[in-house]
Design goal:
By secondary structure, the chain is α/β, with parallel strands linked by helices. It contains twelve helices and 14 strands. The strands form two sheets. A seven-stranded parallel sheet has the order 3-2-1-4-5-7-6, with helices on both faces. Helix 1 packs across helix 12 and helix 7 runs parallel beside helix 9. The radius of gyration is 19 Å and the shape is globular.
């Protein structure tokens, strides 16, 4: 049984990892870290795990032996201090923060506001979006798990960008539930402030902007000029991204449909649909993509659960590829539907 560790086990992402991994047929959670909860049972902090894991939080991941792969679910800036030692000890790593997503140190400093201290591993990290970069993820030692907004937008944009049917200038309008802001409440996510409202935020400064551009450029082989506008909406789980393109020539809806069917027709977790719905993917690792041709323009849609396909579920999917086991193991269940 493969030994798994989670650094940063108290937040939504760490808890969601544990929820998925505790029923995985091929791995065993052997360590979860939390400085403030060290020594407490994990199921005491995450009551929904009662009866599914009997481990206690440790202060450091080094307190546990026999780990083959470690997930790092911490705020940005922390992973780069943990990852080098893990890799040196022969442990595979999946980082769910933003520390290894951008391969350019100058871009990282620009968007995250501090210097990167692990330039070599930053250059070598594999971007962990399986539907586009599956072959690179297989056997990788370090995978940078994509951001939630980024995943929804990239899945929607990448096939059209690669097709050559659209211009390189794209507007992405995204809406996310409040769990995307993490477990620590803020004035913006306080229920009386966000309930019944739609709030645009971080316009022009959101850190998923260069990530979307980078990933689509890598896949499509052309530069993407992105305008990204994220919004907070009063739901807990889910993201919907609407992506607006100018068409370079007259195309039919059937031609655009064929582009997406060719990309995702055989995928287990990404489905090309006529009408995407957050309800259908909530609680699952599934994502839905759709498109519409509107005269000289095209709109692509991407929807997913920000905590699963947008974070922990996608990380488990990458883990399966890295460990050469069934890609859908531990993830093959439907969305909630309501």
């Amino acid at each position: 049984m493969t030994g798994i560790g989670i650094i940063g086990g108290t937040g939504y992402t760490g808890g969601e990892l544990a929820r998925l991994l505790c029923r995985h047929p091929d791995v065993e959670i052997r360590a979860m870290t939390s400085r403030q909860n060290a020594g407490r049972p994990v199921s005491e902090v995450h009551p929904y795990l009662r009866g599914y894991t009997d481990i206690e939080f440790t202060e450091r991941i080094s307190d546990t032996d026999g780990l083959d792969l470690v997930f790092v679910a911490t705020p940005h800036g922390v992973a780069m201090s943990e990852v080098p030692r893990l890799l040196e000890n022969g442990v595979k790593v999946i980082d769910l923060s933003g520390d290894y997503r951008l391969h350019d140190t100058a871009e990282y400093s620009k968007w995250y506001g501090h210097e990167h201290t692990d330039e070599e591993n930053l250059r070598n990290a594999v971007y962990g979006l399986p539907e586009l970069f599956r072959d690179k993820i297989r056997g990788a030692d370090l995978v940078a798990n994509p951001g939630c907004y980024a995943t929804s937008a990239i899945l929607a944009c990448a096939p059209l960008m690669k097709s050559g049917l659209v211009s390189e200038s794209v507007v992405v309008d995204s809406k996310s539930g409040t769990s995307g802001a993490g477990m620590v409440p803020s004035a913006r996510t306080h229920h009386p402030n966000c309930s019944g409202s739609v709030i645009p935020y971080s316009v022009g400064s959101h850190r998923h902007t260069p990530e979307i551009e980078m990933a689509v450029d890598m896949f499509a082989g052309s530069h993407m000029s992105l305008t990204f506008v994220p919004h907070l909406v009063p739901i807990v789980r889910g993201i919907l991204s609407d992506c607006y393109f100018d068409l370079l020539k007259d195309v039919t809806q059937e031609e655009v449909d064929a582009v997406y069917e060719a990309q995702y027709g055989k995928e287990r977790f990404v489905h090309y649909v006529s009408e995407p719905s957050v309800r259908e993917v909530a609680g699952s690792n599934h994502a839905e993509v759709a498109s519409r041709v509107l005269g000289s323009k095209a709109v692509a849609f991407g929807t997913l659960d920000n905590l699963v396909k947008g974070a922990s579920g996608q990380a488990v999917q990458c883990m399966n590829l890295m460990l050469n086991i069934d890609e859908s193991a531990g993830l093959d269940f439907p969305g909630l539907g309501v």
